[in-house]
Specification:
Layout lengths: L7 E6 L2 E6 L3 H24 L9 E7 L4 E5 L13 E5 L4 E3 L8 H11 L3 E5 L2 H9 L5 E5 L16 E7 L5 H14 L5 E4 L3 E6 L2 H25 L2
């Protein structure tokens, strides 16, 4: 599949072809290749930690905000053994304009996050601890985490005394409705670094894939610590 942006010429990205404007051709081609590689590396890292087993989760990065172009993992793929060719390119309407795979239905949440926050990357993991905690604390609509040094992994946090709110949305298979709920949540909680879907997993983001990866690592660590503390309380 191809996309035309102004006058164009064809460029290739492994198994995908993009028809990009002549003026932006080389820049967009190089950015797409770089982001696809970074997404594949992040998937392998998260898999090694047990945060992306099976075909769970999805990872995206922004190629361009205007027009919106996202590099995102194709649906139904093992994220622990991704190649850059398995990262597709979509537009704001979730239309695949580069690549041979379909986007996950959850792509709608990635688009909502990028639209609302102007972030550069969105990573969604399915760890054991985020699944448990999001289910247990769904009745509270979220969980507060405070007092841990690892909180400083989050952008803008300077002290372990920071108190981080991680909201929880009820899981749904209606991703358009869920995207609408997410937009409301983001307006009501402008300073959060992530949220969870109940019984599902964690979403977080960053200015670029490196920051989003750091947020995944920090939040997954904090969720596991909090989960282990909570389990000790009931023993």
């Amino acid at each position: 599949m191809k996309v035309a942006i102004g006058q164009s010429q064809v460029t290739s990205h492994g198994g995908l072809e993009l028809e990009l404007g002549i003026n932006g051709n080389q820049r967009l081609k190089e950015r797409t290749l770089m982001l696809s590689s970074e997404i594949a590396q992040a998937g392998e890292s998260f898999y090694s930690h047990g945060w992306l087993f099976g075909t769970s989760g999805n990872l995206s990065a922004v190629i361009s905000h205007k027009p919106m172009l996202l590099a995102i993992t194709g649906s139904g793929l093992d994220k622990g053994h991704l190649s850059s060719e398995q990262v597709i390119v979509i537009d704001e309407g979730m239309k695949v304009i580069g690549g041979e795979y379909k986007p996950s239905a959850e792509t709608a949440l990635h688009i909502a996050l990028v639209s609302e926050l102007s972030c550069g990357a969105v990573f969604h993991t399915h760890s054991v601890w985020s699944t448990i905690i999001s289910q247990v604390h769904e009745k509270d609509s979220g969980i507060w985490i405070e007092g841990f040094e690892m909180l400083k992994a989050l952008n803008g946090v300077k002290s372990h005394e920071h108190r981080e709110w991680i909201p929880i949305l009820k899981n749904s298979q209606d991703m358009n409705a869920l995207a609408g709920e997410l937009k409301v949540l983001l307006k009501e909680n402008p300073n959060i670094h992530g949220f969870m879907l109940s019984g599902h997993g964690l979403y977080t983001w960053g200015r670029d894939p490196q920051e989003a990866k750091r947020h995944v690592e920090g939040l997954e660590f904090l969720l596991e610590v909090q989960g282990r503390i909570d389990s000790l309380k009931v023993m």
